[in-house]
Design a protein that fits this description.
5-stranded parallel β-sheet, alpha/beta, 8 strands, globular
């Protein structure tokens, strides 16, 4: 059953893919829970289902589920991967899941899915392809650029497009990191190693500043 309730902010809802990740269930099971009215959901004018975050939290409480990736845990790096090619998407998601580094990766197949869920995920790093059907990587990046909420988010673009092709489509936002396909996994590993090292230094610096301020 679909609810007629509409959210006040993007943080109040998420898409089916992210709901499945939060609850550790399949997308099909999420759809069944919506039909059984165990999760509140509605559809946009474009026919895309959005699920109430409060109803997900209520489902977690009802079934004694631990809060999952919806809440920050043990300083894990939140990564949102947007890639329409299933082989590449699963390869990169598998790398993140097997990595000894504290990385939590949510993988999606379209820019539209990412726009629906990104406010709920609050990723530290966005990894996106450019050439995708529907909302492509260019539109995704332009849309996020207009929202100051994502100013501190690091963006890594993976694409087989040439620099000339990218410029012809408007180029990439300033500060975007680019990696040409096919993907070099050694470089990819180095990217995360360097990013996490930099974040650790930043956190230690912030902690030191807080201690100094408290002692002054």
């Amino acid at each position: 059953m679909q609810s007629n309730i509409t959210p006040d902010t993007p943080e109040d809802y998420c898409g089916t893919t992210y709901a499945a990740k939060l609850l550790g269930l399949s997308v099909g099971t999420i759809q069944t829970l919506v039909e059984k009215n165990e999760l509140q959901a509605w559809k946009t004018q474009g026919g895309h289902r959005r699920i109430s975050m409060p109803s997900i939290r209520e489902y977690q409480r009802k079934h004694n589920m631990l809060t999952t990736q919806n809440e920050p845990r043990d300083g894990r790096l939140r990564v949102l991967l947007v890639e329409d090619d299933a082989v590449t998407r699963e390869m990169l998601r598998g790398y993140c899941n097997r990595s000894s580094m504290p990385v939590d990766c949510t993988a999606m197949s379209s820019g539209l899915e990412a726009l629906i869920d990104i406010a709920s995920i609050k990723p530290d790093v966005l990894i996106t392809d450019l050439n995708m059907p529907g909302v492509d990587g260019f539109e995704l990046l332009r849309t996020l650029r207009q929202n100051p909420q994502f100013n501190r988010m690091t963006t890594l673009v993976l694409s087989a497009l040439s620099p000339e092709e990218i410029e012809a489509k408007g180029g990439l936002p300033e500060g975007t990191i680019f990696m040409a396909k096919p993907i070099n996994m050694d470089w990819f590993n180095g990217f995360f190693t360097a990013f996490l090292a930099g974040r650790t230094i930043e956190l230690h610096t912030q902690d030191g500043s807080k201690v100094a301020a408290a002692q002054s």
